[in-house]
């Protein structure tokens, strides 16, 4: 009896003090991801409380997320990130500091020593044309959060610290804006793809289309793999870019290797052309403003397409790639922006050779060296100063770096002048 009376007195004291003894006041935990140059990562966590909280009483010190640094914490009236602040809100947004780049991202699956020996005996290097990629499901990124401080509701109640809670679902920013489908070609061949349709799409207007083709490390049976392995597709679909340049973004998902180091290509490339033609009939796409871009295997695919379909694309943005210089002559009159790193043993010498060949065939080329890790505004200024109407071929060389390093930076804001130049072109 005495114990019960003591408990009642404690509860009464806490109630009079405005401190709640109720069950968790956090009703939902949402993990928020964004795609960076080296893939999809957790960028924020959004908590939903049972009542609106006072924004002035919420800070980064009140929360903890394992192995991550909290950048800023604020309340919001909507379940989303925001640059502006509100006074009160039932949603607490916890933004995280970006993680360092992983230079080893996107490595293809490792071969056994036996497989490697067989390839070497046949003189094969690099991915095998037509070989399949991973069938493993994509990882769902989750989060755990602890409220370690006290926060105050608008009604004056103080919500005490709570134990660690795991997220119940994940929101994938920009990735979630793509639809998924499968194209069936006239020969029965199939091609999975992701398509971003401009917000407020109006069939009475025409829109450009940009197609991104991924690298060999992203070959997979999982249709969204190309969207989460880097920014090649995401960069053209993010809200900031779309606000200035409403456009369709097409990201095919190849389940087989499309090209090899012997400069041979599979049926997927012509199938991609047929897919673009099919989409151009279904949607109001400006066929004079179709652009292609790709990294590594995808960029090699771009060069193959440009050499065989010289009048199809308005401009190309080719990243960390190589190809047979002998077939590139038709590209001399096209609009192309190449990007490669000095430390890339395949792409760097190949693009050097290709740009020299194009110049000899009449192309007017602008070549520049850049530090990819320099401040964003420095890169933007350098690129803007390099652009001139007389050039139809640009070649940006990153100092040092390596193969994957190139595409970790090539689709970031620092390269937006190059992307703007691509979008300024029309056939």
Give structural notes.
This protein has 427 residues and is α/β, with parallel strands linked by helices. It is built from 11 helices and 19 strands. It has helices at 2-16, 113-121, 225-228, 234-237, 239-244, 268-282, 297-308, 347-360, 376-386, 403-410, 416-423; strands at residues 26-36, 39-54, 63-64, 70-76, 88-96, 144-147, 151-152, 158-159, 165-166, 169-172, 178-184, 190-196, 207-213, 248-253, 285-295, 315-319, 336-341, 365-370, 393-398. Strand 15, helix 7 and strand 16 (315-319) form a beta-alpha-beta unit. It is elongated, with a radius of gyration of 26 Å. It starts with a helix and ends with a helix.
Note the total helix count: 11
Helix/strand class: alpha/beta
DSSP strand tally:
19
Beta-strand percentage? 25-35%
Produce the secondary structure layout.
Elements (H helix, E strand, L loop, with lengths): L1 H15 L9 E11 L2 E16 L8 E2 L5 E7 L11 E9 L16 H9 L22 E4 L3 E2 L5 E2 L5 E2 L2 E4 L5 E7 L5 E7 L10 E7 L11 H4 L5 H4 L1 H6 L3 E6 L14 H15 L2 E11 L1 H12 L6 E5 L16 E6 L5 H14 L4 E6 L5 H11 L6 E6 L4 H8 L5 H8 L4
Parallel strand pairs: 1-10, 13-14, 13-15, 15-16, 16-17, 17-19, 18-19
Antiparallel strand pairs: 1-2, 2-5, 3-6, 4-5, 6-9, 7-8, 11-12, 12-14
